Amino acid sequence: MKIEILYLEGCPNHRRAVERVKEALQEEGLTAEVVEVNVPDEAIARSLAFLGSPTIRVNGLDVEPSARASKEFGMMCRTYTEDGTREGLPSRQLIRTALREAVKEASVAHDCCKVPAASVSEPAGPKRKGLLLSVSVAAAIGASLCCILPIVAAVTGVGVLAAGATFETWRPYLMGISGLLLAGGFLLAYRDHKKACEPGSLCATKPMNRWNLVALGIVTLLVTGLAAFPYYSGTVAKAVIRQDGPSGSVGSAALQTAVFRIPDMDCPACAVSLSASLRRLPGVTDAKVDFDSRKAVVSYDPAKQNFAAFEKLVNEAGFHVKPEPRL
């Protein structure tokens, strides 16, 4: 709250007006900035809309309501009417009434965009949204682990390839959970925005917080990218998994070729990972696993390796082998 006391040198009630304002503040239990403004000439009097000395304004409004529309500006002493008599300064009651009006206006302005009490008692709202979005991302990651884990297995050598096949079974359910949780995050954000202000208030036209929209947008893109990962996992796998070229350490006449199908292989990354794993076996000179045909072609030295080892590796990865006639 700001109180201005405009005065003119030579008019008698300047100091008494200051004292009366301070007394009124004390009686109302308020604190405020009190500014004394000297009006030196006619031009400044008109620029300040000066109605005479002393003029008291609370937050820019004259303490005398009937004078607020007056245009009689100038260098003069001022009088106030109270109970039919004219006084040289406003009454203490007039000043206190103006102070109360200012307090009420400030309260209305503050309450316009204030969150209702029910919302204040629920500070977990943002936490709920954060939890929903976090679990949504986690579910999307889980749904894509069927193609993420084969890449991890091939890069690190850790035997997690079989776990990826397990996650493929759960993929539809995890994607459904992820979508529901993401929708819940949007619903909570919209509901909290609608609860923030009463209908018809200034806040009712306030747009949803920009950072909420940014966060929801980022999470939506992340979930969408994770959901689609199986479709581009082969490209990622080829980029990160080291592809050893065919070995020439064994004469081609001594090599044999094993051809078999892996009918339950479920993602392109699995094919790239299995190719790399088969190449690492002793005696294997080359291995190619094609996801589209679900077919594997392995060239190997029969003195060092056999078909049973290939079948075991595929089974440990969580898939099954269906032999085909040898080439």
Determine the mean pLDDT. Answer: 77
- Biggest sheet descriptor: 4 strands, mixed
> How many E strands?
10
Helix content class? 40-55%
Shape: rod-shaped
Textual characterization of the structure:
By secondary structure, this protein is an alpha+beta fold. It has three domains: 2-112, Glutaredoxin (3-Layer(aba) Sandwich); 119-239; 242-323, Alpha-Beta Plaits. The protein contains ten helices and ten strands. Strand 3 (55-58) and strand 4 (61-62) form a beta hairpin.
What are the defining features of this structure?
4-stranded mixed β-sheet; 14% strand; 3 domains; 50% helix; 10 helices; single chain; 327 residues; Glutaredoxin; Alpha-Beta Plaits; alpha+beta
Topology:
Elements: E1 2-7, H1 14-28, E2 33-38, H2 42-47, E3 55-58, E4 61-62, E5 80-82, E6 85-87, H3 92-112, H4 117-120, H5 125-156, H6 161-195, H7 210-227, H8 229-240, E7 256-261, H9 268-279, E8 284-290, E9 295-300, H10 307-316, E10 322-323
Parallel strand pairs: 1-2
Antiparallel strand pairs: 1-3, 3-4, 5-6, 7-9, 7-10, 8-9
Helix pairs in contact: 1-3, 5-6, 5-7, 5-8, 5-9, 6-7, 8-9
Short précis:
This protein is of the alpha+beta class and 327 residues long. The chain has helices at residues 14-28, 42-47, 92-112, 117-120, 125-156, 161-195, 210-227, 229-240, 268-279, 307-316; strands at residues 2-7, 33-38, 55-58, 61-62, 80-82, 85-87, 256-261, 284-290, 295-300, 322-323.
